[in-house]
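Could someone model farnesyl diphosphate with this protein?
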Amino acid sequence: MVLQAVADIPAETGQAPTPPKHVAIIMDGNGRWAARSGVSRSRGHRKGADAVKEAIEGAIINNVQYLTLYAFSSENWNRPEDEVTDLMGLLKMYLKKEIRTLNKEGVCLKVIGCRDTLSPDILKLIDKAEALTKSNTRITLVIALSYGSRDEITLAVKEIASKVGLGTLKPNDISEKTIEEHLFTSKIPDPDLLIRTSGEQRLSNFLLWQSAYTEFLFLPVLWPDFTQQTFTDAVLEFQSRDRRYGARP
Ligand code: FPP
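Reply:
Sure, complex below.
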């Protein structure tokens, strides 16, 4: 996989428009893709894992610095046991098999979510993958695993309250920055663009705090059909948006 960034290709006229620094994706539609193709849900999730590679390549060629993928939500634990086992197995295989390629491509991997709900073997793979790739700077790939935004905010509030209780933090000194610093995403900039595939138009407990000024793009494509070109088209759509952050033009 030798990828040339779009911005490295000389433009014929003018300056290349700024790409989104951070793109977040709700990868939805594996099940519907499987039903439409007459295959098992498991096969749909495996095709979904192939589309993850397309998204990473799309992010790299578009000079995106952070890509966050919603791989497993805190609510996904309520799916049938065999599907949960299947998804966890797929994630483990991904962490084992893809990590060397990701490392070679300069990808820095970070996993966000409730680690205490994950099994020791998956935690070990996450620690190993994060340690191996921690100095890479080409792109940061954030995988949201056992992630729920309300959980994340609740945990942050608990940590802040305990600092207030201990007297190391004054209530008046609590700012938006304090809250941000206690989220799983501390040190990661807010997403500029959030894509959800499959035609559903909701956030499903994903990055609620962080997406206050994010541009949303809801695409009809089912996740297994997502390609590098879909990513590039989404970036072009983002570049046509007028972001005002509540201010007047
Ligand atoms: C939503 O589709 C998708 C998921 C719950 C799992 C996402 C996982 C992957 C794309 C594969 C593995 C990920 C990585 C990072 C290697 P759905 O099952 O809810 O689809 P449906 O709404 O059509 O039923």
